[in-house]
Amino acid sequence: MEDMRVIKKNLFALLAGALLVPTLSVANPTIVDNPFEIMVFPVQENGLHGRWGYTAESAPEQYRRGGLAIFEENGQNKVVVKFEEADVFGQNVKVSGSTIRFKFTYEGVTFDVELTVKGDTLNGTYTSADGTFGIKADRLKVM
Q1: What pLDDT digit, counting tens, does each position of 57-101 carry?
Q2: Which run of H or of E encompasses 6?
Q3: How far does the signal peptide extend, from start to end residue (predicted)?
Q4: 3-class SS of residue 2
Q5: Cβ contacts of residue 92 below 8 Å, gap of 6+?
Q6: Residue 91's closest CA among 68, 111, 66, 64?
Q7: Where are the domains of the chain?
Q8: What CA–CA distance (Å, rounded) separates 105 from 128?
Q9: What superfamily would CATH give domain 2-139?
């Protein structure tokens, strides 16, 4: 039983950190049937940059847990939000010290996210038309 949990945890870490091919568009997220077909970009794990597993307070069950990848590409900070069905790129990504702010749109709903890193934990809020709620993420380590 313990082995199964480790396998699931490591598989989740791998999938949560995976990014889709660069043709992904926020308006029409690509759904991948086979997660092993996903192209993986290297993510440096320090400060805000890295792969994270999040828990979003008050989110519908299918979106309550997911992944984030925060990385730098061509000198710009990027964010990908990982859902079970799709990966969505963040927009208007802004980093100030240990805090990152970004927006993303998924299934017609726009979310504003603000997260602050402290060690291997991100804490913050996400805001949608339904209100502002807490979100917490822990750095994922693939073993």
Answers
A1: 888 888 899 999 999 999 999 999 998 888 999 999 999 999 999
A2: helix 2-17
A3: 1-27
A4: helix
A5: 101, 102, 103
A6: 111
A7: 2-139
A8: 10
A9: Quinohemoprotein amine dehydrogenase alpha subunit, domain 2 (2.40.128.120)
